[in-house]
Amino acid sequence: MKRFEGASVLVTGGSRGIGKAIALRFAKLGAARVAIGYMRNDTAAEQTADDLRGVGAEPLLIRGNVTSERVLSEVESHGPWNVVVHNAATGVIRPALETEDKHWDWTLSANARALLSLARVAAPAMPKGSSIIGISSLGSTRVMENYVLVGTSKAALESLVRYLAVELAPRGIRVNAVSGGVVDTEALDHFPQKDRMIEWGTKRTPAGRLVAPEDIAHAVAFLCSPGADMIRGHVLVVDGGFMLPA
Length: 246
Fold this sequence. Notes:
Blueprint: E1 8-12, H1 17-28, E2 33-38, H2 42-54, E3 58-63, H3 69-77, E4 83-86, H4 101-122, E5 131-137, H5 148-168, E6 174-180, H6 194-204, H7 213-223, E7 235-238
Parallel strand pairs: 1-2, 1-4, 2-3, 4-5, 5-6, 6-7
Helix pairs in contact: 1-7, 3-4, 4-5
């Protein structure tokens, strides 16, 4: 029997990159229905939906800002969910002194508050044994160039994961996070130092390569599996040893 046979899974930011890899991983492990939250790229979302059908899962596309009342209402109405993964992320990549309050509000809302909003609408109907996962990054604890807003939002997300893990435990819902190292996806295109990041990340990583979206997907699936039942409020770092060298 497949590990997630018949499960209903929601992945925000699920049409591309890490989110798509997570969605396909659950589908391959038997999920019956995989919902993809995405912002505006209909072409990518439809392609992911086709890929999900190809491995036997029923896709559901939820378009729009994950913090909007409409999207949250859709999430609630299409439940109950066995797995909710908040992978969607955005943010302004600038030095701290060049940011504005509106940049802070946008980044913190999309990356951190959205997880709380999702939990409020999804958790009440989630059955025992379900999981909520937040996708974080090393910028939550390490200082990266021009990453002040996103890094701070990811730190907030990790703190929220710990609080939700305690509050939702009596309901039988596990809450954890996965933090990736330098992952070579389209998201890196937003960094002016992309080429330098890839070269530096590859050289620094003891595993000898950058993290792939599938590496994150495997970690997420593990944390949602019965074997991870006693892992609560944990941030699982998947970086190939990137942060180990002095």
